[in-house]
Design goal:
alpha+beta; two-stranded antiparallel sheet; 18% strand
């Protein structure tokens, strides 16, 4: 049986083998706020307006909000498994074991650009997420793909790809399957009543 402390140490060693040649602050202005004497619990910053960014912060507006992920094991085990699985990728991966935090660089939408995906493993089986593009592009005017949210769709896709690799579903996946009903924004079958119909009700 591997104790949690030993697990964290093993995760750190694995990440060093992946790539930890640069300090975290030198690669990007990421959203990670480490634990400290002032902030006992680490967290991910909210997305800034007018950026290509999504996060699981509960204060995010719909176009920037994304469900956190969920784990089926304790935090230390889930973190160690994520380190192991991400070590097989060609992406640059950095981590801070004491906070169960991972930072993954993935190709961005703009040619030659990078998006920063962040995972923060918290208690109660929750993994907070954040993805921000280093190069901001204007959003598309609309989207008609099922489950599409018109806002930072590329960044959502980056997080979804990481979640599939790690086998970590969205925390709201079951609820969405049971209750969600998707209607294409430009093909809504519900006709909007005209003013005459409104007047009939008065």
């Amino acid at each position: 049986m591997i104790l949690p402390a030993a697990r964290a140490a093993l995760a750190t060693v694995t990440l060093v083998a992946v790539q930890l040649s640069h300090p975290l602050e030198s690669v990007a202005d990421v959203g990670y706020v480490p634990s400290s004497d002032i902030e006992q619990i680490p967290r991910l910053k909210s997305c800034q307006p007018n950026t290509n960014c999504v996060s699981s912060g509960y204060l995010e507006p719909p176009n920037r909000y994304m469900s956190p992920l969920k784990t089926l094991s304790d935090k230390e085990t889930a973190y160690s498994r994520a380190v192991r699985d991400l070590s097989t990728l060609n992406n640059k991966v950095e981590g801070i074991a004491k906070d169960s935090y991972l930072h993954i660089e993935v190709p961005g939408t703009a040619p030659g650009s990078i998006d920063d995906v962040e995972l923060l493993f918290a208690d109660e089986g929750v993994v907070n997420v954040r993805c921000e593009a280093r190069v901001t592009l204007p959003p598309p005017p609309f989207c008609i793909k099922k489950n599409c949210i018109n806002g930072n769709m590329d960044q959502r896709t980056r997080v979804e790809e990481i979640s599939r690799i790690l086998g970590l579903p969205a925390a709201d996946s079951e609820r969405m399957k049971q209750t969600a009903k998707w209607t294409p924004i430009f093909f809504n079958s519900d006709r909007v009543p005209d003013m005459l119909e409104y007047d009939d009700y008065h």
